[in-house]
Amino acid sequence: MSRDGHVDLDLDGTTRRFRLGIGDLEALQETTGAGPAALLHRFHAGRRYRFRDVRDVLRLGLIGGGTPVPQAHAVARSLDGLPCIPLIAKAALVLAAALEGTEDERVGRPAGAAGPEGRIAFAAFYGAAAAMGLPAADLRAMSLWQLAAYIDGFNRARDPEVAADLTPQEEDALWAWLQGGSEDEGPPA
């Protein structure tokens, strides 16, 4: 896996780069009606997904990986004649690369951040980016790992004395607040 969330895979005899940045994950969620983690789980479980979900992951992954949009759409249309199981495996790898980033350098990542159908609350990402002065276009181009590293670095630069990571309970409380807290409530203490 890579820090920017890309993975290079063979698709019908051609090695292609796939990448789902935050903006691509947002588009995937809007297109499929399910969160990326839920889709990944469905692919692994072998149920409750549609072939068009597989096609959408691969199409958006190609676009995020740098394939021109018309070419990505043409490749996605050509998938109908290919064996299904290898395509599902490739879609799962593309999603896993986008959601996990690199394993050799873990960045603090809150658990339990998914809503109904595994949907991601993207508003929390945009809010964090605004607080850090990060333009929305830059946020949308990042992988989840890159955003987590950016937030981690921002927080450490603002308060270098704070070295301890959040406990799992503190992470859960913070993400619950980010996803559903009202505007007049403050973050958990």
Q: Could you characterize what this model shows?
A:
The chain is mainly alpha-helical and 189 residues long. It has nine helices and two strands, in the order ββααααααααα. It folds into two domains: 6-100, no CATH class; 116-180, no CATH class. Helix content is 57%, strand content 6%. A hairpin with a 2-residue loop joins β1 and β2. The longest helix is centred in the middle third of the chain and has 17 residues, at 84-100. The radius of gyration is 17 Å and the shape is globular. The model has no long low-confidence stretch (mean pLDDT 82).
Strand percentage: 5-15%
Low-confidence stretches: none
Order of helices and strands: EEHHHHHHHHH
Main sheet record: 2 strands, antiparallel
Pfam families: Phage_TAC_11 (PF11836)
Organism: Methylobacterium variabile
Protein name: Gene transfer agent protein
Question: What would the keywords be for this entry?
Answer:
mainly alpha; two-stranded antiparallel sheet; 9 helices; 189 residues; 57% helix
Short description:
With 189 residues, the protein is mainly alpha-helical.
